[in-house]
Request: fold
Amino acid sequence: MLFSASCKYGLRASMLLAMRDTKTYVSIRELSDELNISFHFLTKIFQKMNAANLIDSKKGVNGGVKLAKPSHRVTFMDVVNAIDGSCSMDSCALALPGCGVKRSCPMHDQWSGIKEGMLEMMEKVTLAELAKNSANE
Reply:
């Protein structure tokens, strides 16, 4: 609903990277197999994350990707913005055109409050926290 498939996969891949040694490059093929995501699709996602300076990539036999900075310094929102852009939460919950501009949809008031809470959470939660929570499951 809120995030594209690319963004969901990017978040999952980012959590996996956060769970691993941040100094070691991880093969995109290994990640795509582990996440059951198309290698080519994941490569395109990582290109966006690389452009946003969230990951470092290295070509060659020992190449792959790794987080560009410590996982406690990368937020959920950083990944979302890199992949889906900053306006991914701006749309109407019911996908009605013009909602909020001239007239509000039936969900506008409720969605506005939920959206504010979600944006706050996304700006605070780090990949380190997500990785820790994922490892505890």
In short: The chain is about 50% helix and 5% strand.
